[in-house]
Amino acid sequence: MRANTLIMIVLAGVFGILAVVLANMWLANQRSAMAQAGEVPRDTIVVAATTLKFGDTLSADKLREIAWPAGAVPAGAFKTTKELLAGDGSKQALQAIGVNEPVLATKITGPGQRATLSAVLAEGMKAVSIRVNDVLGVAGFVFPGDRVDVLLTRTVRSDEGADKSFVDVLLQSVKVLAVDQVADESKDSPTVVKAVTVEVSTKDAQKLTLAAGAGQLSLALRQAAASKSETTERVTLTDLTGDTPDDVAKRQAALEKQAAADAAAAEERRRADARIDGLAKAVDQLSKIKPAPAVASAPEVHEVVKEVVKYVQPEPPARATIGVFRGVKLETYDVPRQD
Q: Within this chain, do residues 1 and 100 fall inside the same structural domain, yes or no?
C-alpha cells in the first residue's frame, strides 16, 4: 500500500470521529435549551376549536383550552371554557374567529346579549345607514369591516344663474358595520346592495343625515391598512374641463340662445304648415263646386262666295329664232313666225 493512500485513510478516520463528537455536543446543547424552555411559567387560554361566524352561539364543543406562556396572555382572554361560558344566557360571536384563534371578550357578546350592531358599536359611536346602488356602493365590493370615504355630490344655483356642480369628501376612514342586513365580516362574495351601515360619531351622524337630503352620497373604498386622514379639496366642473365660471356661464347662455332660436324656427315652421293646410282646404272646397251650364249661342250666317276659274289659251309668239351651223360655227336668225 502506498504511503499517500494510508495518510488519506487516517485523515478520513480522524475527521469522522471529530464530526461525531461535534454532533453529540450540539444535541446536548439542544436538550439543555429545551429543558430550560420547559421551565417557563405556563398558563391556559381558550381558543376556537372550529371556525366561528358572526352570530354563532358559543358552546363547549366549539371551544378548547391550550397552553400559553403566562407572560403573553392577550388582554380580554379567558383561561377556561367554564369561565367563558359563565353567566345567565348564551354568548355569541360578534365577528369571525378562526380555528385556534384566542376568543377575546371584545369578540363575543355578554351573557344573554344578542349579536346585533349595538353590541359591535364602540363606545360613543352611532350606526347610520346610507342608501346606495350598484355604482355608488362600489359595485358590491364593500364588506363589513372595510373602511370607506363618504363623498357628497351637489348642484347649486350660482349668483349668475348658472348651475354649479361639485364633489366634497364628507367623511374619511369610516368603518362599515353591515351591508343591507348582513354584518358578518367573514362574508367574501360581492353582492349589489341597497344600503350600507357605517359607524360614526354623533356629529358625523348628523352630517350624514343632512347630506342625504342635500345631494347624492357615494362611497370610495380605502386600502385595508390606510386609516389616516388625507388632505382633500372640493372638485368642480372647472377641474374637469379647465373652464372658468365665466366660461361655463357663457357656454350656458349660448346654449340657451340656441335653444330659443330653435324654438322660434319650430314655431315659424308650424305657422307655415298651418297656412299650407289652409290653402289646401280652400282648393279642396273650390274643386267641389259644380260649374254653371254654358248657353249655346245662335250660329252665325256666313256668305258663300264661289270662285270660277277659266283656262285661256295663250297666243303663240310672232317671231321665232332659227340656228344654222356653218361648219362648226352656229349662227342664229330671228325670223317672222308662220303658222
A: no
Pairing of strands 195-200, 126-131: antiparallel
Reported as half-sphere exposure (CB side, CA atoms, 13 A), residue 55 has a value of 9
Q: List, in sequence order, every residue forming a beta bridge with 332; answer none if it has no partner.
A: 323
Instruction: Output the nine-digit C-alpha cell for 13.
Output: 478516520
Residue 289 inside a domain? The answer is no
Quote the pTM value. 0.47
Q: How far apart (Å, rounded) are the C-alpha atoms in residues 135 and 144?
A: 18
3-class SS of residue 240 = helix
Could you tell me if residue 77 is inside a domain?
yes
Question: How far is 142 from 136, CA to CA, in rounded Å?
Answer: 10
State the total domains in the chain: 4
* Mean of pLDDT over the chain: 79
148 with 255, same domain? no
Q: Is residue 200 part of a domain?
A: yes
Q: Which of 22-31, 58-67, 108-117, 149-158 has the lowest mean pLDDT?
A: 108-117
Percent of the chain with pLDDT over 70: 76
Yes or no: say if 130 and 175 are a contact pair by the CB < 8 Å rule.
no
At CA 53, angle to CA 49 and CA 58, rounded to 5?
55
Domain of residue 47 covers 42-115
Burial of 186 (0-12, 13-18, 19+ CB in 10 A): middle
CA angle 66, 68, 69 (to 5 degrees): 165
61 and 165 together in one domain: no
Rounded to an integer, what distance in angstroms lies between the CA atom of residue 90 and that of residue 240? 57
